[in-house]
Every structure is written in C-alpha cells, then in structure tokens.
Amino acid sequence: MIDVLVVGGGNAALCAALMAREAGARVLLLEAAPRRWRGGNSQHTRNLRCMHEAPQDVLVDAYTEEEFWQDLLKVTGGMTDERLARRVIRDSSRCRDWMRRHGVRFQPSLSGTLQLARTNAFFTGGGKALINAYYRSAEALGVQIRYDSPVTGIELQGDRFVAVHLAAREVDGVRRPAERIEARSCVLAAGGFESNRDWLREAWGQNENGDWAADNFLIRGARFNTGTLLRALIDSGADAVGDPTQAHMVAIDARAPLYDGGICTRIDCVSLGVVVNCDGRRFYDEGEDFWPKRYAIWGRLVAQQPGQVGYSIIDRKAVGRFMPPVFPGTAASTLGELARQLSLPEAAFVETIEAYNQACRVGTFDHTALDDCRTEGLSPAKTHWARPIDTPPFYGYPLRPGVTFTYLGLRTDETAAVHFSGKPSPNLFVAGEMMAGNVLGKGYTAGVGMSIGTAFGRIAGSQAAAAAGHHPASMTAGQDHAIA
Description:
By secondary structure, the chain is of the alpha+beta class. It has helices at about 10-20, 65-75, 80-90, 95-100, 125-140, 195-205, 230-235, 290-295, 300-305, 335-340, 345-360, 450-465; strands at about 1-5, 25-30, 45-50, 105, 120-125, 145, 150-155, 160-165, 170, 175, 180-190, 220, 240, 245-255, 275, 310-315, 330, 360, 375, 395-405, 410, 415-420, 425-430. The protein has two domains: about 1-190 and about 225-240 and about 405-465, 3-Layer(bba) Sandwich (FAD/NAD(P)-binding domain); about 250-400, Alpha-Beta Complex (Flavocytochrome C3, Chain A, domain 1), CATH 3.90.700. Helix content is about 25%, strand content about 20%. Helix 10 (about 335-340) crosses helix 11. The longest helix has 20 residues, at about 450-465.
C-alpha cells in the first residue's frame, strides 16, 4: 500500500511529496494536468517572500519577522491567523537551503523588480524552472508520479482518510478505467476553485442587469484548479475558512487569454498614472502603497466597476518605469483621441484627467519610496506618485479581473491537519492554496503564496509521513525537517 498519497502537482504538493519521501515513505503524487501543463499556478510564479535578519546571498539588507508580519497584517486588514502566519514567516527564513538541495536556483532581482530585492528571492528561470527541478528530484528519489489523474472523490471514515476515487477517462486516445486508490495518509494540495466558472458564479452572484458577475473574469492561473476536492471535503463536514469571493485577483490586460496568462498579462503601470472605469471616472487611490503590496487588490476593484472593466492611463513620463506587458498600450497624441480609441466617453474622460492634473501637488518624485507627490482636494485622492498626465503620447491599457487563486479553503493548524468540527484528522493534511485562506483572509503581498505553499507543503509532507509510520531522522527545532 502507498504510505503517502499527494493530490496536486504544484509547489505545495511537490514540497509535501519530497519531505514525505525523505522521511522514508512510499509516495504517490496525482497531478490532474497532463505532463506539459504540470505545476498548477506555481509554474507562473517568480519568487518567494523571505524573512531574513541580515543580508543573505540574493537578498539585501534585512527583512525581519516583525516587518513581514506587519506587511501581511496590513494587506489582510487583520483577517489572518497570526499563529499560522508567523509559522509561514519563520519557515521562509530556513527553506532555501532545502530548496537548493532539490535543484532550485536563485538569482538577484533584475531591473523592474529591484524594489523586491530586500524581501523576495527570485527563482532562476522562474516558477517553471522551480517546478521542473522539483519533479526531477522527486523522480530521482522514487516518488511515483501520475499525470492526467484528476481526483473526483474522497473516501473518509469519520475524520480519517481512506482512499481517493478517479473517474474513468480518456488519455491520449486510451480509455482508463475508474480507480480507487488507498493510502495510509494523504496530503491535499490541489489548488482553489478559480477555474470552476459555476462556483465563481455562485460566489459572486448576478449584477443589476441579471448578468453573472464572474462571467467577465479571466483565469490568470491554471485551468485545472476546479475545486472538486475542496467542495467534496466541505460537503463531507470538513471545517472551512475564508470568503468565497476573496481571491488573489489582479487587474490584467483585457486582451489576455482565458486561462494561464500568467504574470506577463499583469499591468504594472497603475501607480504611475490613473485608472478609470468605462464611464471615464477614477474610483480608487492608485498611489495607496507600494505596487507589490497593492497589485492584487486591483482585480477586485475592477470587478466592482460597471461592466467589470477599467483602463490604466499613463503618459510618456511613465514609460520605462514599469515592467512592460505582453500587449502594447493604445497610444494617442491627445487625451480626446485616447478616449475615442478606448471607446470611453470623451468629455467625462478629459474632465477626469484635467481635474486630476489640477489637483496634483508634485514634490520629489521617487517611485521607490512613499514620496510626497500627491493630490489635494480630489476624491478619490492619489496619495503618492501623483504627477500630471500632460506629456504625449498618452497610453491606455484595458483591464479585466484576472483570478490567480481563490481563498476559500480548509481550516488547519500548525500541523497542517484538516479539521472536522474543530478536531484535526489523524491522517489527512492540506497545503497550498487549499488552506491559504487561513493566512490570507483578503489582500496579498508579492511572493507570499509561495511562502505559504512551501511552508505548509513541507509541514504536511512530514506529518503525513509520520502518520504513515515514517519519521525524519532529525526532528530538532530549527532544522529543515522540523515540524510543530
């Protein structure tokens, strides 16, 4: 019999599989996607947010536990479990040597990401390279890996895991029969429900016109994250945590593909200009905080606008100060021409930009600091990086909500166990996006999803191995294999 069954194929699942295998467990990993699409949302990532008390290789200066915690507290508005959040933060300071042993390489921050040089460690080759390294290591260690294997159901005896079920399916022209797979313990790391349009509709409801709000969402992440197991566990009595409408939701280019657009579809010039809705009106402070701490609120903000669209507007002064998106912006020599090209109401749009320009109080512009360039007497205000949009050519980027992953998940504790009526399961564990809502009640800050997945993937793998009768050689606090 399999000792540890891991359901999922991204960062958290691979960390769990590697830790369980290192402990001596016989491990089977089931990835719903075909091999070429393996890795879930992790393939689209770039970095890991890391606590460190002093400069460390690719990380400059220091990023203390308390500063990390305060950053997380700010973006979540206090909607976070401090015990679990601090566990993630502390584990982020000691995971990178383990990651290197499994083939992950890091590089210094590049141009356009220098503001993260103190807080985030970037993967050489990005998330795809990290995923490939983990799969190579898992295969070398003897982890069994099966692709095209979406789990459709889970079998429990009370709070104890027994088996998973796979429906009959066709893979590469070959009919595979339905299966039941037993294991001594199980780690669930199969992502959120962002690719389940029906569930998104259920969560977001209908607008005043009777249209389903979620129908205009693009799925920035993996198309295979349908939430099947999340729904099955909640229906079976597992304790849930989080709001189904809360998500890592980014304002992305409206021309992006429906699935798997990844980071290149993000529009990063928001804080350098203004954002208007389809009525040509601003609706939020574009300079509220540093972009890595605020980029993931803009998808939700756009989703709340008429037609669920927005437009990021900049002028020539902003060019070269942000990571260019994959699609070029619409360019015009006048504001009126830009409005016409974007099909915005010209008079309202020009009035909005002119009112903004008149309200700007420009001091010393510095996009790397919370500078003193602000608006005065304008609502909503722009509190930093406010400069008049007055230097042609002018550019506009159409925006739509892009969902990376949802926050509704399974409640857990420091052991990563799934809870039923407040009590932890003895052999069922959860990691990654399926439990991220314990830490992320709302909001996001760059790289913290990978921090959560890495920390709880490793915890869940160790705990699952122990539940199956295998224990790491060293359980000394502070070492790589330590668990709470």
